[in-house]
Amino acid sequence: MTRPEFFDCNTRIGKPGKPGPGAFHTKDGLLREMDYLGISEAVVHHVAAVGASAGNGRLLDEIAGETRLHGSWVFPPHHQIDFPDPGKAVEEMLSLGVKVARIFPPYYHAGVVADWASGRFFRALEAHRVPLMISGSQLGKHPDDTRPSYSAQNIYDICQSYPSLPVAIVHLNWSATRILHPLMQSCPNLLVEISYYSSHRGVEFLVQQSGAERILFGTGMPETSPGVALALVLYADVSEEERRLIAGDNLRRLLSEVE
Amino acid sequence: MEASTIRARVDKGLPITDVLIIDGLVSIPVEPGNTYASYFPFNTAQDELITMDRLGIDKACVITFDNDPTLRAMEAHPDRFIGFCFVNPNYPNEVVPLLERCFDAGMQGIKLHPAAHTHYYPIDGRNYRPVFEFAASRGCPILIHSGPRTEADLRMNRPSLIAKVAAWYPDAPFIISHCGAYDPKETWDALDEAVEAARTYENVYLNFNTLARYFGVIEYLVEKVGAEKVIFGSDAPQHCFIAEVGHVAFAKVSEADKAKIFGLNMARLLGMAVEIGGST
C-alpha cells in the first residue's frame, strides 16, 4: 500500500475555553503536528470565530503566507441582522482566498435552518459551490452530549433545499450509522468527515454503502486524536484509488470546484 | 525491536506482528443476524477476528452480557479470545456459582458494569463483595465500566468509588474502563479522578478504550501514571479496533511504552508468560 497524500479537512487553532492537555493552539503547533503525522495540507478555522466573527480575521492574520493551511470561516447561520447581504460576505471570503464555510449550532434556535431564516446565506454558498461544514449536529457529536445541535432532519432540509451545495457532517459519530444511511441515500450532496467515526470498520462500510467520493479525511485536531482518522484510512479494506479519494482527493476536488 | 517499528507498519497499513497486542475490552455481539439497539457493522466474532488479523492484535478480552456466547467464542478460538465473566449483582445467590462455572471453563477475568444494563448497583455495595473476594483469591483482573455521564454513573462507578473498593482488596487488580472519562463535557476532570486512583493504589490500572476520541490521552496517561499502568482496549465492535491502534501508534511515547500498553501489561495481569519480542 502506498501511503496517500493526506489533506485534513478539519483542524483548529486558537485557545478554547477548556483545552485538553497537550493540545496545540497556534499555527506553528498545528504545522509541527502535521509534520509528525505526515499530513501535507489542512483546512483550519479559528476557535475565536465560533464566538465572534472577528476570529475569521485573526485566522487570516495567523496563517498568512502558509501555503499548507487553507482557511475556513465560521458564519452565524441566522445572518439577517449581522450581515443582511450574505452574497457580499461570501464574495469577501472568496476574495481573501477562503473556500470553506463552517457553521456551529447556536445555543438558541440551533434547529432553525429554514429558508426564511438562513436561505439567503445557504444560497450564496451554493452559488459559488463553497463547501459547508456542519459542526455539532446530532450525527456529529457524542450521543450523550445534551448541548444544542442540528438534527438529521435539519441536515436533510439543507441538502434538499440547496442541492448544489456541498454539505459535510463534521465529526461524524460512531452511533450515527442507522440514521446516516437513509440520509446519504436521500442527499447526494452530503459528505461525511471521519475523525470521530470509530464504528467497527466504519470507513469501508461507508464506502460500500455510499461510495468513497463522499468521505473526507479529517483529524479534528487538537480536539480528537489524529491517529484515529489516519489509521481508519490506512487500514480500510478499500482500493488504492478509494483510499486516495478519502485521504485528500475528494477535498482537493471540492476546493477546485469553488467558483 | 527497532525504534519506529510500530508507526512504520501502521503507515503501510500492515499488521503489527512483532509486538504482543491484547485488546483489553471487546464485546462478542452474540450471533450473526441479530440486530441491536445501536447499529455497528461487521458485528460477528469472525468479523472481529478479520480486523484483529489486519492489525496484528493477538488476543482479545471478550465479554457478553449473557456469558454463554463468550464461552462459545473461547471454545472456537481458544488462542484468540480470553473470556471475562459478566456478573449481575442483583442475583446474589448466583454470583459465585456463575464465576466458578465460567472460570472452570477457562475465563480469566471479570467485567462489571454497575450503572448500566439494568444492574444499577453501586460498586461498593455488599453484593459485589463475593466478586472481589473471588478475584482476590485468584488474582484475576476486574474490569469495571466507569463513565460519569449521569447521576447514576456518579453514584455507582466513578473512579474514586472504584479506588475505595480497590483499597479493600489489594490482591485483586482493578482496571478502570474508559479511564472513567466517558463523557465529552467532563473528560479531563473525570480522567484526572482515574489518574489519582491509579497513582494512589498499586492495584488500580487504566484501560483507555474509546478515548481515542480525545487528543493527547496516551501521552497524558504515561506522564501521570507511567506506561505500566495503562492498558490497551478498543470496546469493539461499538468502537473500532483500528481507532485505538492508531491512537497508540501515533502517540508521542516510546516504542517500549507502546509495547507495554499494547500487551505486556495485560499479559502480566493475566499471568501469561511472554517471550522477548512479545509472543506468548
Please outline what is shown here.
The complex is a heterodimer of chains A (259) and B (280). Chain A has 259 residues and is of the alpha/beta class.
Structure commentary:
The complex is a heterodimer of chains A (259) and B (280). Chain A has 259 residues and is α/β, with parallel strands linked by helices. Helix content of chain A is 40%, strand content 15%. The relative contact order of chain A is 0.15. Chain B has 280 residues and is an alpha/beta fold. Chain B has a single domain (5-269), classed as Alpha-Beta Barrel (TIM Barrel), CATH 3.20.20.140. The longest helix of chain B is centred in the last third of the chain and has 15 residues, at 255-269. The mean pLDDT of chain B is 90.
Topology:
The complex is a heterodimer of chains A (259) and B (280).
Chain A: E1 6-13, H1 27-37, E2 39-46, H2 48-51, H3 54-63, E3 69-74, H4 86-95, E4 100-103, H5 115-128, E5 132-134, H6 152-161, E6 167-169, H7 177-186, E7 190-193, H8 202-210, E8 215-216, H9 226-234, H10 240-256
Parallel strand pairs in A: 1-2, 2-3, 3-4, 4-5, 5-6, 6-7, 7-8
Helix pairs in contact in A: 6-7
Chain B: H1 5-11, E1 22-27, H2 45-55, E2 59-63, H3 67-76, E3 81-86, H4 92-104, E4 109-112, H5 129-138, E5 142-144, H6 151-157, H7 159-168, E6 174-177, H8 187-200, E7 204-207, H9 217-225, E8 230-231, H10 241-249, H11 255-269
